[in-house]
Amino acid sequence: MTEFNVLSDSTPWQTGFKERWRASYESAGLGAAAAERMAGDWCTGNDWTVAEITDAGAHAGYVAVAVTDVNGALAGRMGDLHLDVSHAGRGHERAARDWAEGWCAERGARRLDIRLTEPAGELFDGYRIRGQLRARRVGSAPEPTNGVTGRPMTHAEYPDWLAFEKDAYVGDIVRSGALSPEEAVRKSDRDFAELLPEGLSTPDNTFLVLEAAGERIGTGWLKHGYVPGVSYGYSLHVEEAHRGKGYGRAAMAVGEQATLAAGDSVLMFTVWGGNEVAMNLYTSAGYRIVEESRSVGLPRSAA
């Protein structure tokens, strides 16, 4: 019989939790310093309620949950669901998932969010994919593909680029189902103000105009040192008139060149849920899933 006991001291869980997340980041290709940083940000930056999972009185694993205000609405989070190997596959996973959903719903949460570092499997099939964090280690500067090159963006080009990127960001958020259009606009304004306080002159950022045969075909924006040794690609955009010509992969090669030029060795992107074209592109280019975010509406009946 599966039982759940909320712990007053979650120290034993916390240690193992961080170790597992750090190992998952390293296995995805991140260096030790980057893996430590990302694991620390996720594992220690949240006020988790942790329940011990027991099987007929014996320790079987842990499940960690929290409920927070997200843009004026309560949302639940499942930070961990871990079964010891000897207790895995006996139905405790499903029981823990249902317990987490119920715990969050009882506290007013209208949805439950999870963050995964391994394939979801059948347990979370009913959860909608909100986004994926993808990464690839760049060993050497790739050769230009399809004649695509990148040049620095000019100050005259920046305002139109910024307006386009903010609108595109809103569209990505809404398409993923994460926020309403109004909430997405507010988030876009906040995030861009925080990320680019000095506009085009913000340090450790590269802004590119992508060209082929002397013609502008798209743009790119990378943040270097996002975590140690990692450049984060906030945007690599190929204009609609130039899509279907292999320029998407070529644009990523330009981003990889910029990553190495800045002294980083890993390039990372987020792809929003609902954008299967980008997911397929990243997979074909060797970008592994580092994290996957999913969510489900609450309350719901146990499947």
Based on the structure given, which CATH architecture of the largest domain is correct?
Answer: 3-Layer(aba) Sandwich
Radius of gyration: 21 Å
Determine the strand fraction and express it as a percent band. Answer: 25-35%
Task: Find the CATH superfamily of the largest domain.
Answer: Gcn5-related N-acetyltransferase (GNAT)
Gross geometry: elongated
CATH class of the largest domain: Alpha Beta
From the 3D structure, determine the CATH topology of the largest domain.
Aminopeptidase
Q: Helicity range of the residues?
A: 25-40%
EC number: 2.3.1.-
InterPro entries: Acyl_CoA_acyltransferase, GNAT_dom
Keywords: Acyltransferase, Transferase
Protein name: GNAT family N-acetyltransferase
Written description of the protein model:
It is a single chain. With 303 residues, the chain is of the alpha+beta class. It folds into two domains: 119 residues, Gcn5-related N-acetyltransferase (GNAT) (Aminopeptidase), CATH 3.40.630; 126 residues, Gcn5-related N-acetyltransferase (GNAT) (Aminopeptidase, 3-Layer(aba) Sandwich). Helices cover 34% and strands 34% of the residues. Strands 1-2-3-4-5-12-6-11-10-9-8-7 form a twelve-stranded mixed sheet, sandwiched between helices. A hairpin with a 2-residue loop joins β9 and β10. The longest helix has 19 residues. The radius of gyration is 21 Å and the shape is elongated. This is GNAT family N-acetyltransferase. One of its GO terms (molecular function) is acyltransferase activity. Keywords: Acyltransferase, Transferase.
